[in-house]
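ENTRY TYPE: paired fold submission
RECORD: A
CONTENT: sequence, then structure tokens
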Amino acid sequence: MELTAGNVWVMVSAALVLLMTPGLGLFYGGMTRAKAALNMIMMSFVSAGIVGVVWVLWGYSMSGGEGFLGVFGNPFASFGLSNIVGSDLIKAGFSGTFAMVTVALISGAIADRAKFTAWVIFVPLWITAVYCPLAFMVWGGGLMSHGGAVSAVFGQVIDFAGGTVVEISSGIAALVLALIIGKRHGFGKDASHRPHNVPFIMLGAGILWFGWFGFNAGAATTAEQAGLIWINTLAAPAAAMLSWLVTEKVRHGHPTSLGAASGAVAGLVAITPACANVSPVAAVALGLVAGFASAMFVELKYKFGFDDSLDVVGVHLGAGLVGTLALGFIALPVNGEGGGLFYGGGIQQLVAQTVAVLITLALSAFMTAVIGIALHKTIGFRVSHEDEVTGVDLTEHAETAYEFGGLGPSQFHPLRQHIHTMPSAQQSVQPEPETVSA
């Protein structure tokens, strides 16, 4: 079989999307306290490792092929990718990178306080019970795919790159886990709960934006579609960044680096489902709305008292809802037919998008609650108070992100003994570097 330009583009896009997961680790790692930075990065890295294995064994098989009630595919039909060959293997690899970054997104909501072992168990369970069914329903021939039962009744759902499958599913899962695990000690009161490394955040956001061109445009089938997706993936986050900064300036008096990075990511999230189905001008408008809306959504955690540590709910759930539902208004007509309300397409597209959102919210919230509560009630999902005060880098990994003296590389091996012989949690607190307030 000849290797085509299309094959090469999908492989390059898969590599771009794969880079997003360590990029996310940097983005999240910079937003945590110094004593939890490595743990945060590790949660992204280990997600890639676990999902890579799960996807080869049964994940890809569950996301397509012959389905069960339109909800998920047969996990044994292509177990181990044994009967997948040629360009279909490229497609399998590309789709696997999406699953990696999706579950990694959830980790930001439980930063500073989650047991690494519990997270390692959570990842394959969530991918199997939530991500794979949603991927099948939307992209693999299931309920919300073309010809599926939901689409037949309510109209064809539009989700080109993952507004429901990736963003809304991970955002609502993040909220559920944050509620199960509870708040960090000192949430809303302790000034140390602020980003310790803003340059890491900016670097991570840049990597995410870079990778997102593969995320959105990797599945393009024509040059015209690829061009539209590419420019929309440029325009929406640019507009959202500006919108977030203006919102910060008006509400708080200062535009921040964290706001710029978060705004760009919010715009990327919002354009994800709509990238192939809106005009560039509409993409700019969508970005402006998403930046403002996400900046406001982030503040809800203080109003309602849930500790979404790194604003996963505000950015990914908030902007995911905006982008997915906005298609009901701004989706372009196809061959002169359909489209959103602003193009005279009627309310049908908005109804289809709303139904897709509700199904995604219900499935992800319910299954995340089942998995999260089961883990929390058995092995425990949260570290002890002492370990949280000490820092999860040290207690979960026997490492520190920074060297301030006293625990240098030459003392690495006895570190575990050092942890357990500390006379009190207060003495075990490691000094943190000077931070830049976000």
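RECORD: B
CONTENT: sequence, then structure tokens
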Amino acid sequence: MPPLPPPSPTRRLALYTLVVCLLAVAAAVVSFVQGSWLGIVWVLLAGLSSNMTWYYVKRGRAAGQDGPVTG
């Protein structure tokens, strides 16, 4: 089995923004459960990072980085 190629910068950025989105959603849930209105900021950050994730995923696909792996 050949080793996997290193992830491209676009794929790496998409992964980082996805992690930020998931952490922001978790922070929003915790804030709202504790009764804090600061959760609204976390929801906005989750929306922004979600849009950034989709942008980098589409950008990577347009560049042909998610083609089939041959080997």
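NOTES ON RECORD B: Helices lie at 9-33, 39-62. The mean pLDDT is 87.
STATUS: closed
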